[in-house]
Amino acid sequence: MPTIRKEILIEATPEHVWDAVSDAGAVHHRLVPGYTEDTIMNGYERTLVLPNGGITREFIVSIDDKERRMAYAVKETRLPLLHHHASFQVFPHGENASKLVWITDFLPEHLAPEIQARIHRGAEVMKETIEAGVKGD
User: Fold this and answer.
1) Which CATH superfamily, name and number, covers 3-136?
2) What is the tens place of the pLDDT at every residue in 23-55?
3) Between the N and C ends of the chain, which has fewer C-beta atoms within 10 Å?
4) What single string gives the DSSP state of each residue in 49-80?
5) The pLDDT of residue 105 is above 70
6) CDD domains annotated for this entry (predicted)?
7) Integer Cα distance of 66 and 3 in angstroms
8) Strand pairing of 83-93 and 97-107?
């Protein structure tokens, strides 16, 4: 099973980054605006409404405040996935910065280039959005 690990250095405290990452119902505001138009929560299920009219349904598997780790699994998307599980974990980096580690496991293997591109772009948007949130505080 392929694994993609992405480390994102963010100019914001771990507390600020974790606050954004753990806000499972605000993905469209706090993490990837433009990538998502809305986020709908129904218990452990999260539905991301995409700009092109598509949706992605996910299960929120864990939100661990102590470890600053959030895990989720994709249940439904336009990609022909057999399996998708990912996690975010926030670590201190220097004095007032953070390292956000995004790990994604998925099948089938041939989707690796597409998923890698999505993670790369998503990471850029997350960094920009979280850092802009710090400047706006």
Assistant:
1) START domain (3.30.530.20)
2) 999 999 999 999 999 999 999 999 999 999 899
3) C
4) EPTTS-EEEEEEEEEETTTTEEEEEEEE-SS-
5) yes
6) PYR_PYL_RCAR_like
7) 25
8) antiparallel
